[in-house]
Amino acid sequence: MPDSGLVMYEEEFKQIDAELSKLHQLANAKVTFLVDKNGQLIASVGETQNLDTTSLASLTAGNIAATGGMAKLLGEKEFSILFHEGEKDNVHISLIGDRVILVVVFDQRSSLGLVRLRVKKSSEVFVQIFSKIMDKVDKEKENKSSRSPFAEITEDDIDRLFG
Amino acid sequence: MSFINYSAREINCKIVYYGPGLCGKTTNLIYIYKKTNPDSKGKMISLATETERTLFFDFLPLALGNIKGFKVRFHLYTVPGQVFYDASRKLILRGVDGVIFVADSQVERMEANIESMENLRKNLKDQGLNLDAMPFVIQYNKRDLPNVVPVEELNRVLNPRNVPNFEAVAATGKGVFDTLKELAKTVIMELKKKS
Lengths: 163, 195
Hints:
The complex is a heterodimer.
Chain A: E1 6-8, H1 10-26, E2 31-36, E3 41-46, H2 53-73, E4 81-85, E5 90-96, E6 100-106, H3 112-143, H4 155-161
Antiparallel strand pairs in A: 2-3, 2-6, 4-5, 5-6
Chain B: E1 3-5, E2 10-18, H1 25-35, E3 45-48, E4 54-67, E5 70-78, H2 86-92, E6 98-104, H3 110-126, E7 136-141, H4 151-158, E8 165-167, H5 176-194
Parallel strand pairs in B: 2-5, 2-6, 6-7, 7-8
Antiparallel strand pairs in B: 1-2, 3-4, 4-5
C-alpha cells in the first residue's frame, strides 16, 4: 500500500509490543525493534536506554532500501534477511510482509541460529497483526468515522508549532 | 508516508530536501540542527564521503510540538545531489510527505537546477507520486553571491506551478526556517484534507 500512511492503534500496538517482548526473551536478544519501511520506529523492547532508536530506525530502513535496490539490479525480488556481525554485538534484520522491518540486536548470549528460528516464528505473528491493522485502516476510511487528529486542525495550531 | 500512532499519540511525517550537488541541502539541515532546542531534536546523521559530500542521506528528526494532543515529528532527509547517485535518491523519496527543492541561484548552476528538477519529477513518478499534486516548496539558495539569477527568472524556469518560494542564504540561516515552516504547514494541511 504505497499510497497510504501507516496508522497504529492501541490494541494492535499492545499485541506488537507483546510479540516483540516474547521474541526478545526467547531469542536471548539485547534489543528487538520494529520499523516502518519508510524509517519510522514503530516499537522497541530491551536495552534501549542508551540507544538512539530513532536514528537506528532510519538507518535500518536505508539499509533495507539499499539492499532492495541491489536485489533488483541483480534480478532478485528482494533480500529479505540481512545480518551484520560485530565484535560483540550482531544485528539481524528481516523484512516482514513487505511493509515492516524487524531488527534483533544480540550478543554472545544468543546465536544466529536461535535468532533466525525465533524471528521466523514471530514474523508470522507480525504478518497477521499488520494485516489486521490494514483492514482496520480501510474500514475506518469507508466509515469516515474520522478519528484522525488532523480533522479539526486550524492554521493557528500549525503556527503554534513553530512558536 | 505519514505514520499516525494512536498508542504513543504521535504523528510522524517525512520531508525530503532535493536539489543539485552543492546547492546547500545539508547546510539547511545543519542550520536547523544548530538552532533547534536540544529537547526537540534527535541526533543528526550524515552518511557522507571523506570530502563531506552526501553519499546516501542526512537525517534529522525534529519534534515540533503538539497538535490536538498528538506529538508532531518531522523526519528531515536530504538526498545526495551528485548526478550519479540517482539510485540512492530514488530510495530516499520512498514514503515522502513533502519535498523542498533547494535551487542554487548562481547563473552557472541553472542547468543543474533544471536537470535536478526533472530528475525529481521522474523519480517521484516512478513511485506513483505526482510532484504537481503534493506538498512542495522551492528555496532559492545562495542569494548572497554576486552572480545570481533574478528570482523572477528562477520562478519562470523552475516554478511554473507557482508554489511557495523563498530566497535563502542557508549558510547564515536566512530563509531556512521560513522554507521548512511553509512546507510543514502544507504537509499537515494535506493530511487534514485526506482525513
